[in-house]
C-alpha cells in the first residue's frame, strides 16, 4: 500500500433530543424515553460516518447529497443514506480501511451497545466489524449534551485508493 493512496475524513453531527422513544444510534434502536429530532431518522452517528467517508473522498457532505429541504428525505433511514454515500465513495475508487467513532450522550449509557453498533455499521459498509471503533462519552453534565438536550457524534474515516498518485 502506498501512502499517497490514503485519505482521512472527519464527520460531525448534532441532534436535539425530544420526549418519547425509541432512540436510534448507529443503526441500532435503543429503548429510551427520548428520540433524536431531525428531518431524516436523525441517526447522529450514521450522519457523522457518512460525512467522514464523503469528506475523505472529497465528495461533499450529507447535506449536499440528501438535503433536509427535500421531501423524499423526511424520515428516511440513515442506513440507506450511508449505503448510497459509500457507493459513491467506492465508485470513486476508494475502500474504507477503518472508522473511529465517538458518540457524546449523557444518557442513555451506550457502553452496552458499542459492539452492536459497530457490527451494524460494518454490515452497512460490508466491512469486518474489527475495522469499526465505537466509543461513548458523556457530557460530564456540561453544555447541551451534559444537560441531556442533545447527542453529538464524531467519526474519522481512513480510506485507501489503489494506484493513487495524489
Structural overview:
The protein has 166 residues and is an alpha+beta fold. The protein has a single domain, classed as 2-Layer Sandwich (60s Ribosomal Protein L30, Chain: A), CATH 3.30.1330. It is 28% helix and 31% strand. The protein has a five-stranded mixed sheet. The protein has a two-stranded antiparallel sheet with strand order 2-3. Helix 1 runs parallel beside helix 3. The two termini are 13 Å apart. The model has no long low-confidence stretch (mean pLDDT 94).
List keywords for this structure.
60s Ribosomal Protein L30, Chain: A; 7 strands; single chain; alpha+beta; 166 residues; two-stranded antiparallel ribbon; 5-stranded mixed β-sheet
Cα gyration radius (Å):
16 Å
CATH superfamily grouping? 2-C-methyl-D-erythritol 2,4-cyclodiphosphate synthase
Task: Write the element-wise H/E pattern from the N-terminal end onward.
Answer: EEEEHHHEHEHE
Biggest sheet: strand arrangement: 4-1-7-5-6
Domain count, please report it.
1
Helix content: 25-40%
Please give the oligomerization state of what you see. Answer: single chain
Assigned CATH class: Alpha Beta
CA-based shape: globular
Taking the alpha carbons of the first and last residues, their distance comes to: 13 Å
Q: What is the CATH fold-level name? A: 60s Ribosomal Protein L30, Chain: A
Identify low-pLDDT runs. none
User: What's the architecture, going by CATH?
Assistant: 2-Layer Sandwich
Amino acid at each position: 500500500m502506498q501512502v499517497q493512496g490514503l485519505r482521512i475524513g472527519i464527520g460531525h453531527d448534532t441532534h436535539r433530543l425530544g420526549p418519547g422513544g425509541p432512540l436510534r444510534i448507529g443503526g441500532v434502536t435503543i429503548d429510551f424515553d427520548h428520540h433524536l429530532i431531525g428531518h431524516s431518522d436523525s441517526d447522529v452517528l450514521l450522519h457523522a460516518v457518512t460525512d467522514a467517508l464523503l469528506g475523505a473522498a472529497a465528495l461533499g457532505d450529507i447535506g449536499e447529497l440528501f438535503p433536509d429541504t427535500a421531501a423524499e428525505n423526511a424520515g428516511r433511514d440513515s442506513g440507506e443514506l450511508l449505503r448510497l454515500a459509500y457507493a459513491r465513495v467506492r465508485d470513486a475508487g476508494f475502500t474504507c480501511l477503518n472508522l473511529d467513532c465517538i458518540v457524546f450522550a449523557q444518557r442513555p449509557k451506550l457502553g452496552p451497545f458499542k459492539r452492536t453498533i459497530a457490527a451494524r455499521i460494518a454490515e452497512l459498509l460490508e466491512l469486518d466489524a474489527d475495522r469499526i471503533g465505537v466509543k461513548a462519552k458523556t457530557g460530564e453534565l456540561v453544555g447541551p449534551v451534559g444537560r441531556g438536550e442533545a447527542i453529538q457524534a464524531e467519526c474519522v474515516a481512513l480510506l485507501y485508493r489503489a494506484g493513487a498518485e495524489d
